[in-house]
Amino acid sequence: MLKKKYIGAVLAGALALGAWSGSAMATPVNVNGVMWDSSSPFDLTIQSLNLRESSVSNVGDTLMGYGQIGSINQDNHFCASCDLTFTFSYTVSDINGNKVTFDNGSFQFYLQSAGSYNAADPGSVGGSSWLTLAGHTAPQTDYSSLGQLYATVTGTIPQPGQFSGGAGLLDVTGGDAMPYIDSNTIADGIGGFADLHLNSEFQSKPASTCGGNVSSDPNDICHYPISGTGSLTGITAVPEPGTIGMLGLGLGFLGLAMRRRRKEIDNRA
Fold first, then answer.
1. Domain coverage including residue 213
2. Which residues fall within 8 angstroms of residue 15, CB to CB, at 6 or more apart?
3. Which of 121, 117, 46 shows the shortest CA–CA distance to 85?
4. How many domains are there within the chain?
5. For residue 101, which phi and psi values (nearest 5 degrees)?
6. Mean pLDDT, range 190-198, rounded to an integer
7. What confidence category does residue 212 fall into, taking pLDDT thresholds of 50, 70 and 90?
8. Under 8 Å between Cβ of 67 and 107
9. Mean pLDDT (the chain, rounded)
10. What are the φ and ψ backbone dihedral angles of 23, each rounded to 5 degrees?
């Protein structure tokens, strides 16, 4: 039987590691300069601003857009030296009244130098790849077909009015941020799991320089007459060093104590 002092040593080691692991988990995640605190009560919330998207009218049309991330976990100082921007696209697969279903969804997030993004210039989006996402197929109540993104439109489909909105699920497929966002924690209702939930609000609001004209050129701001905001929510997939570390160090102290105990027995023999 172990002496009390050895048991105390094991306990002290475990408590020390517990304190260390708690502070380690509070350390912000840092992916190429983009930082966020995974212990935040808002984790994980990625919110966009300056979102622009194209207009769609019929099944088969491509919805495309771009924008900039404005905050992560409610913090708008998540990167001191970069802009985090994105592009996205979906294909209209079904229209039923004011409800639109989309498939073939994809997002590409970029890191670019701070101040290089210009919301009025679609061509200003670019840089190094930070994260890629793909649409995740899941059912949605009150929609007639299965898809990856679902929109309810006020007004008309090509010219949505105020309070139009969309929702869908996304899977992480690549990028340096993948290990921290690939959590597989959102049940899709059909036996699978997604990484992120997408919510958006949008309305028709062309740039004043377009004069009501819609351009066919994706590099022209007039190709994107719809303005909006969006958010991605999930859980940061940060490894928890506390559980593994506490077990390892605790077992280490226990092994040391047992070796000492065996040595004492051997010496007495």
1. 39-237
2. none
3. 117
4. 2
5. -110, 140
6. 98
7. confident
8. no
9. 86
10. -70, -35
Do 169 and 187 reside in the same domain of the chain?
yes
Q: Which two tokens stand for residue 225?
A: 């007459």
84 and 179 inside one domain: yes
**pLDDT above 80 for 19:** no
Q: Is 189 helix (H, G, I), strand (E, B) or coil?
A: coil
Is residue 225 located within the same domain as residue 255?
Answer: no
What does DSSP assign to residue 209?
A: G
Q: Where are the beta strands (DSSP E) in 73-187?
A: 82-96, 99-113, 128-136, 149-152, 164-174, 186-187
pLDDT at 243 over 50: no
Provide the pLDDT for residue 259. 58
Q: Spell out the residues 6+ positions from residue 16 whose beta carbon is closer than 8 angstroms to its own.
A: 249
Does residue 257 have a pLDDT over 90?
Answer: no
Q: Is 142 exposed, middle or buried (0-12, 13-18, 19+ CB in 10 A)?
A: exposed
pLDDT value, residue 238: 75
